[in-house]
Amino acid sequence: MIKEIIKNEIKFFNNWQSNKKNDIYGIIEKEEISKYDFLNILFNSDKNILELIAKKAKLLTDSYFGKMILLYAPLYISNFCINKCVYCGFSSLNKNIVRKKMEIKEIEKEMIALKQSGFDTILILTGDDRKNSPVEYIGEAINIAKKYFSEILIEVYALTYDEYKYLVSKGLTGVTIYQETYDEKLYNRLHLAGPKKDFYFRLHAPERAIAAGVKEINIGCLLGLNKNFLLDVFLTAIHADYLQRNYTDVEISISYPRIQPAESAIKIKTQVNDFDFTRIIMATRIFLPRVGLNLSTREKSYMRDNLIGLGITKMSAGSKTTVGGYASTTEDTGQFEINDRRKVEEIIRIIASRGYRPEFTNWVRI
Predict the structure, then answer these.
(1) What is the Rg, in whole angstroms, of the alpha carbon atoms belonging to the chain?
(2) Are 27 and 37 a contacting pair, CB within 8 Å?
(3) CA atoms of 363 and 366, how far apart (whole Å)
């Protein structure tokens, strides 16, 4: 069970730190690396070795995924939330945000606008509020999305097995759910109240979704919450490895978003610099060559451009973190700040210039 695995891997991580070795050259030459090797790469700070790691990461990415980057778009349909997460712009602690929930007709207009931009994959998001964003409301949005998109994912609150089963019947293909941090004590300090405070209900959500028929799972940690961010990276990768080994018919992906400024109770600055972030992406690719790696518009354009081919397989483009905003303009506060504001056409051009093919279709609905 993942609960026990995480506890044991924290002990492994702490023991490794007191006995670590740095034979990076030998590790890079291996066809398969262990979790011990993975930690050696994660903690390697020699910039001269980074180029060797990059070459290995590129080789594996191209071998397993080809020269293709899948593009997707997030659509926030509601920002009502009852959680008291101190770092999030949608938190109920934030009294400055204008709360909105789109009507079904508005949702369809936004989806049409995204489809006209070329997207065939959509990520539907809400805050955690079962009154304003009940499962039935999410189901209606999925049902509409089915008319326009072949791949439909959600990033909402953690659901029960029956709720995931209901959404799958409506057309759901995938679930994105971040644990945020795998440090349970820190998690409890950051999530003051609300349903999200239940650490283990959230941790087990991916497996409930898989049992209900979901075929894509994207997990992640929010880099910057934990000062010991490499522990969170390690545990995210271990979680993904566990899911991939136990559910071989499910597509597993990882996101490592770095925390960005938001209208929140406390301001947290990420301590993950560009060198760290690049190393995290490439080390994960070498450890988990078949796992998808997502990169959002939280990151600056130069980072997104330079990481093409070094592990990334999916990128959001032209994103909005406000409720709606594709079919009409809005000046509302988003969940967090976006750094890459380039239009979809610009993202397509830069991917092509790097020798990769921008792709909009991952699944074909039959």
Answers:
(1) 20
(2) yes
(3) 9
3-30: burial string, b at 16+ Cβ within 10 Å, e else: eeebeebbeebeebeeeeeeebeebbee
Longest dimension (CA), the chain: 59
Domain boundaries, the chain: 2-359
Evaluate whether 122 touches 152 at the Cβ level (below 8 Å).
Answer: yes
Please state the rounded mean pLDDT for residues 312-337: 81
Name the amino acid, one letter, at 354: R
Between the CA atoms of 354, 359, 362 and 363, what dihedral angle is there, to the nearest 10 degrees? -160
For residue range 35-55, what is the model confidence (pLDDT) as tens digits? 999 999 999 888 888 999 999
Place of tokens 């899911």: 243
Secondary structure element (H or E) that encloses residue 70, with its range: strand 68-76
For the segment 9-29, what is each residue's pLDDT rounded down to a tens digit?
999 999 987 776 667 888 999
d(Cα 173, Cα 154) in Å, to the nearest integer? Answer: 9
- The CATH superfamily assigned to 2-359 is Aldolase class I (3.20.20.70)
User: What predicted TM-score, i.e. pTM, was given to this entire model?
Assistant: 0.94
For residue 272, give both structure tokens.
């993950």
